[in-house]
């Protein structure tokens, strides 16, 4: 289940991609299939080991084209272990709402992104997320849980403040909003067989939808995404720095002489 729409966020074969806070690796796997040179990074070592296993299985099965590479590694989003301007593309999906220093994370992403590179940021949408917070304190008052709810203008403003230039937005996963409302209403800690019947029934519907991708639910979700889409997705570029004029050094020297 992808949150980033790769028809709006195209990848070229050979692009260097950082999936920051990759979790179970869903976007990293898709980038690998598209021929990218992928680094999937997360602070959760257990998840990273699973992602590495899946990368190896994909390579063995021939799911990635020739030239594509994939690396899974542990790391800190606030102190990325890469030189400046390393990546053509950065993806951070459903992560920033967990991190107290979200401005610091944005600054690190911009640092490792090449000028002209692209970034995709996804966070829970304000309206559906606010319903979850209202229905259940346990939904967000847990270690590592959601610590803020972004309004669209707020997130875009922070991206601009970090030096990015947003170029598109949309919403995703409308069918998932009712599922989380049900979980919050009946108990977010009740999973599997312990979950309430409405939660189990809706979960079966979502699994069926993900596996079968029937036209009816695809159309329904497209129509509902603008209204109750669970995620807000923003795309941006890192502008190229303005070129220095040929007489700039001379002017600087003149200024220095004047000050002397």
UniProtKB/TrEMBL annotation:
One of its GO terms (molecular function) is methyltransferase activity. Keywords: Methyltransferase, Transferase. Residues 18-120 form the Methyltransferase type domain. One of its GO terms (biological process) is methylation. Its EC number is 2.1.-.-. This is Class I SAM-dependent methyltransferase. The lineage of its organism: Bacteria, Bacillati, Actinomycetota, Actinomycetes, Kitasatosporales.
């Amino acid at each position: 289940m992808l949150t980033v729409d790769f028809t709006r966020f195209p990848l070229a074969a050979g692009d260097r991609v950082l999936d920051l806070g990759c979790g179970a690796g869903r976007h990293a796997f898709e980038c690998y299939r598209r021929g990218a040179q992928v680094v999937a990074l997360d602070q959760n070592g257990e998840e990273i080991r699973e992602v590495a296993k899946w990368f190896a299985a994909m390579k063995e099965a021939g799911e990635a084209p020739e030239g594509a590479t994939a690396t899974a590694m542990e790391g800190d989003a606030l102190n990325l272990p890469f030189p400046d301007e390393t990546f053509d593309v950065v993806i951070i999906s459903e992560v920033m709402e967990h991190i107290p220093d979200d401005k610091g994370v944005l600054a690190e992403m911009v640092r490792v992104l090449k000028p002209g590179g692209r970034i995709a940021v996804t966070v829970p949408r304000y309206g559906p997320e606010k319903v979850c917070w209202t229905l259940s304190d346990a939904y967000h008052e847990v270690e590592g849980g959601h610590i803020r709810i972004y309004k669209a203008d707020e997130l875009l403003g922070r991206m601009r403040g970090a030096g990015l230039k947003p170029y598109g937005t949309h919403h995703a996963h409308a069918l998932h909003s009712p599922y989380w409302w049900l979980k919050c209403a009946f108990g977010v800690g009740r999973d599997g067989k312990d979950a309430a019947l409405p939660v189990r029934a809706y979960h079966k519907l979502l699994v069926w939808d993900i596996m079968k991708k029937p036209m009816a639910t695809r159309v329904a979700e497209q129509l509902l995404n603008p209204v109750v889409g669970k995620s807000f997705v923003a795309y941006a570029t890192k502008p190229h720095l303005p070129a220095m004029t040929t007489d700039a050094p001379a002017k600087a020297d003149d200024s220095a002489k004047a000050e002397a």
